[in-house]
Records
---
Amino acid sequence: MENHAVSMEKIVSLCKRRGFVFQSSEIYGGQNGAWDYGPLGIALKNNIQKAWWKEMTQLHDNIVGLDAAILMHPRVWEASGHVANFSDPLVDCKDCKSRFRADDDTQISPENVEKRTCPKCGGPLTEPRSFNLMFKTSIGPAEDSSSVIYLRPETAQGIYVNYKNIAQSNRLKIPFGIAQVGKAFRNEIVTKNFIFRTCEFEQMEMQFFVKPGEDENFFEYWREQRMSYYPKYGIRKDKLRWHHHDKLAHYAKDAYDIEFEFPMGFQELEGIHNRTDFDLTQHTEYSGKDLQYIDQDNGNERFIPYIIETSAGLTRNVLMFLCDAYEEEKVADKGNDDDWRTVLHFHPSIAPVTVAVLPLMKKDGLAELAKEIQGELKEEFMTDYDQSGAIGKRYRRQDEIGTPFCITIDYDSKEDNTVTLRFRDSMEQVRIARSDLVSRIRAEIKSYSRA
Ligand code: ATP
């Protein structure tokens, strides 16, 4: 079949048209770097989060969950190195006032930085200077230096500072992991590409605590786990690749990114880092608390665990799932050769709506029967009900939001208790007994693979 290429403009436009994602504070002209998730967007984001949470906690016996506060003691960020190191080198054009990240060659070439010339207008650039990415605010009634507090720029630190509480209260033995999903904030200089890079975003992080010396094996284990995870939810393997860091962050011994091919090219989706004992050593020093692990199975041996981190953007995952699913497809429908449909090929566990229930007509009791059937499906699946317009149009509306299954109720349904089940990807239709619907859809979800 013929296809049109996906572009960011098309994704943004679909997201607005169908209520996935809106610009924050749009009626006031919009707020840069912030986006609101509409009814379908929050359903999609929740499903992505649920899939990750299942993968990390339900399918791994030795990983538990946490939901730590966004506001943390300011010393946390001194210990973590964020106060000193968490900055981007920036250059500004003195003429056109454009701002670029000096270390990002998609924004400005190394030659331009070297020669201090603006790539937009040719004007003179400032020296590269640091910009701290943490949002600072104040807590309490007086705004003085003692009230400074930060919005967390990553969720990881909440895990580190709780690691002893969690290990002791849950009697965890190394190796074990702690998973967390939550908001993070970074005062990003360049927010672009829709929800790819924003100032307010969500992360899905898992920190795995291991014995020093076993870190490299677990690093490999987690790399393999994370790369094989995405195709389970329908992401095409050829859209994913590894990027090995040659320049490492101050805390890291080794680091790989999983990159996805977004419309603007391959970009980071998730980082897998060997953070060594850096974080817990720092927190030991800054808090004065002993954060050693006591290995009771090995003669009470004491050590500071090494940490393997898997750190993915939840909101960046939303963009990936949208981009990977999007297709404009030419369909030879009813003899009309020039018929196109927009379809999102979401995995059924990720799709915001799983089943749409569509009565062929509103009258003659079909709507009532359809509502009754929807009631039977609701307990198990996210459903939608639509009775307006021609049935072909209604199928297309569901294709566009990625609904994998549509059920049509017609006059025969009243007589013989059968319905039509229509599949989004193949557009095939089968006749099926109403009583078999739940088990059939369940089985289709389980065996789904993208053609
Ligand atoms: P980048 O190089 O893109 O700035 P990073 O290397 O600083 O990202 P990490 O600190 O490793 O990113 O964060 C882990 C994950 O969090 C990233 O892989 C990404 O998915 C997500 N993430 C980081 N910054 C943002 C942001 N500003 N907006 C949306 N997601 C983000």
---
Amino acid sequence: MRVPIIAGNWKCYKTVAEAVALVRELRQGLMNIKGVEVVLCPSFVALAPVADLLKPTGIGLGAQNMFWEDQGAYTGEVSPLMLKELCQYVILGHSERRQYFGETDEGVNRKVKAALRHGLKPIVCVGENLAENEAGRTAEVVERQLRAALRDISAEQVRSLVIAYEPVWAIGTGRPATGAGANAVIGQTVRGTLAELYGKALAQEVRIQYGGSVNPKNIAEFMTQPDIDGALVGGASLKAADFVAIVQETVRAKQ
Ligand code: PEP
């Protein structure tokens, strides 16, 4: 049984004061929810105060990025050693990092290995852009990104990570994939690649999220699909009512 996981990616939104206010609202709304793991991913500067507020709740905390070295003269970077004091998860390889900050498949792999070395659970993002999608290259791109991200990752380690299939054309556009379309890529390409790398049984254990313009109205379409184990939510995670509704709908759909 794969426990569904809903993660909120707050991107470069919310000051520390706003993040604290949002967490206070979310704590209320998410208090009695069971059967779904919930993870909040605020900016680096909000991690410490949010960690304090989440302590008694069972809600998880994640960062949105990380450097691969433990420490050193790397001005502006945040290391796994620093993050592991504060949070359990880290989003790696998000398409915005690849697009605007030059992240490569190789860099994502170095980060995945560093996170796992320190007991942080990576949420590894893969997904094709619009041109690749229209050229019929979705499977090829997703498989390449996934194989690269998982290079030298053992079967034991792969169990603790989460994969997010996020078609780039669906992120922040209000144009989500269809439930069936996302399930096909996740079931065939993502789980298929995992099966080739680690065997069929292990491929069934790994949690795979969908991400891209998820909202309270469309979440059920994704969560009723057999191969989709949750969602990585951007825009809709910034409003407490919407994020709580997404989690509640997930509980209902997965019952
Ligand atoms: C994301 O940031 O990973 C994302 C899926 O964003 P949105 O939900 O806004 O499309």
